[in-house]
Amino acid sequence: MHEKTLHNTAYPKSKKLWLTVLKITFSIFFIFFLINYVEYDKVVTILGKANILYILIVIILMATNIYYQFKKWELLVNNLIKEKSKKKILVSLFHGFAAGITTPVRSGEYFGRAIIFKEKPLSQIIIATAIEKFIMMILVVFVGSIISLLYLVTIGIATYLIIIIAVIAIILFALFAQILNSPGSWKKIIPHRIRKFKFVEDIMEKLQFLKNVNKKLIIKLVIFTVAAYFIYILQFGILLLSFSSEGNLINALWCGSLVMFVKTIIPAVGIGDLGIREGAAVFFSPALGFTEAAALNAALGLFFVNLFLPSVVGFILSFRKY
Fold first, then answer.
1. Residue from 114, 122, 209, 221 nearest 176 by CA
2. Based on the structure, what is the number of domains in the chain?
3. What domain range is 98 assigned to?
4. Tens digits of residue pLDDT in 113-156
5. How far is CA 240 from CA 110, 236, 305, in A?
6. Does pTM top 0.90 for this prediction?
7. Does residue 1 belong to any structural domain of this protein?
8. Burial of 200 (0-12, 13-18, 19+ CB in 10 A)
9. pLDDT, tens digit, for every residue of 219-234?
């Protein structure tokens, strides 16, 4: 028998509605708080002086960003779900954008991607999505830890904080190296006696499709993940420069890495991480040579380009039958 369908696992409509309303309310409140903190006149003035060419470049890079995300998802779906249709895979990705934007830490994306794969087990889609997210999280936290360490050194924060971050980075690197070296070793974590229980056997049976997660697949995923990560911080960096008459690209990329790091390690309760990204940008920008107003505009612009627009496309596609 197939597993429970997506509709059976969803929240009641009334609960989903209230959660969505609360998230929208929080996001709007926090953004208004930041605008008031930075000063509304400065935000609007800088917005009016934006470099249009830079903004167009960021929009063009959006297509590159989506391409790398598609390639990651295609690799996982081809190898784990055994689905080869590029059209279905692309539509699944956009469904995920639409479902994820209104849920905490974009959790709806796991279910959104499964909508078009009706004949496939929901658990496999969720686990495949989790693998993609996990690799990105490891990369962001590892790089972000190093970047944060450099930032703390720059602003003269206490040494013990630097040591803590360095230890976290080393642990993450060791964890990822172990996964890369032995991608199938997850089974060994479960003691043999525990594996004898029926429910554990059932779970492990459902996870058998993970045997196709090999070193070659992980290396390809890492390559596409690195590319997607670089495109993301490049977009933020260019947007930051488009709203600023000072600063340089290196510092702008540095700021982008810090923003993505904070956005990843702090659970968001708003729409599409709205609020966390903007707060981090406003916090880090002054020390790196940018105004708070420029950083706030850059963060909001990144949300609009990378999350809002793809989500609109996903929402439109959800009304079509495939």
1. 221
2. 1
3. 6-317
4. 998 998 888 888 988 898 898 889 888 888 888 887 778 777 66
5. 31, 6, 14
6. no
7. no
8. middle
9. 899 999 999 999 999 9
